Amino acid sequence: MGYTVSDSLGVGVGFAVFGLFAFAPGYTFGWFTNVFEFRRCRLATRIAAAVPISIGLSPIVAYSLWRIWLPLVWIVFGASGIACAALLASDWRSRKLGLLRSGRWVLGIAAGWLVVGALSLIDIQLGNRLYFPFSTYDHQTRAAFTAALTRDGVPPHNPFFFAGQPAPLRYHYFWLILCSLVNRLCGTVVSARVSLIAGTLWCGLGLLGVIALYLRFFGEKRSDQIERRTLIAACLLLVTGLDIVPILAWDAVGHRIVPTIEAWNEPVRAWISTLLWVPHDLAAVIAGLTGFLLVWDAAGGEKRRFRIAGVVGGGLAFATTAGTSIYIGMTFAAGCALWIAIALLKRWWRPALGTIAAGVLATLVLMPFLFQLTHGAADSAGTAHSFPVSLTVRSFTIPDLILDSFSPGKVASTWKTLALNAALLPVNYFLEFGFFFIVGTLGVRRIWREGLRNQAEWAIAALATASLLLCTFTKSTVIGPNDLGYVSALLVQFILLLWAAEMWNAGELGFGPLRSGRSAGKPGTDRWLITATLALGVMGSCYELCFQRTFPILSDMYNVEKVPWLSHDQLLGQRTFELRRAYEEMDRMLPRSAIVQAAPASGIGNIQAELYSGRPMVADLGDCGTVFGGSQEYCRNAILPRLSTLFDDRRPVTAKEVSDTCHEFSISVLLFEDDDPVWKDKSSWIWKTEPILNNGFARAIQCDAGNTLHAGSNR
Question: Are 321 and 284 in contact (CB under 8 A)?
Answer without folding.
Answer: yes
